[in-house]
């Protein structure tokens, strides 16, 4: 009997021209491509390995979905979300906040994971959004937060996507556990500890590796 390959559906959202395609392609290919055809959504399929388990990743890099009116559809489809803004564009930060707001309204109470990504960190000289604003917003919506530059390097972008995927995979594993009775607080902390790398005494275990 063949076991199904686990799958994570990722949606990349954000205002126009913040670098959604740039960060997505940087993550997938390590390359930076300056210009993309706007007004198109791009769909990618990609595989990563979590603790020797091959996982299929589907990434939807969206474009102008507020104007096209397909935000709702994209939010319904995805289970992990990267919300991108540009640090030199205050308006894009407000739009990111609006998307996080919509996510909360449309997705809860089902599980989803989200990542707030401040792109174009290299344009520090014309910054309109400070790091603290990003942190604050991520705390408000309980999402991960990274500032990156798709133009300048691969490492930051890769780390951000890996964290989002790892959290999403952990949530999937938790959901798939055959819980027949209510777990006590200790049991829940044990399960979380196993996934996030702590044992029940609070000692940190070696983090499982992720190769892409
Ligand atoms: N300086 C700088 N420019 C960037 C960076 N990332 C993307 N850009 C530039 O920003 C512009 C928009 O990038 P895209 O990746 O097309 O942005 P997008 O959000 O996918 O755009 P739409 O699909 O039209 O909404 C391009 O000119 C990129 O070269 C970055 O990290 N730093």
UniProtKB/TrEMBL annotation:
Known EC number: 3.6.5.2
UniProt family annotation: Belongs to the small GTPase superfamily. Ras family.
Superkingdom, taxonomy of origin: Eukaryota
Natural source organism: Henosepilachna vigintioctopunctata
Enzyme class: hydrolase
Catalytic activity: GTP + H2O = GDP + phosphate + H(+)
Entry GO MF terms: G protein activity; GTP binding
Protein name: small monomeric GTPase
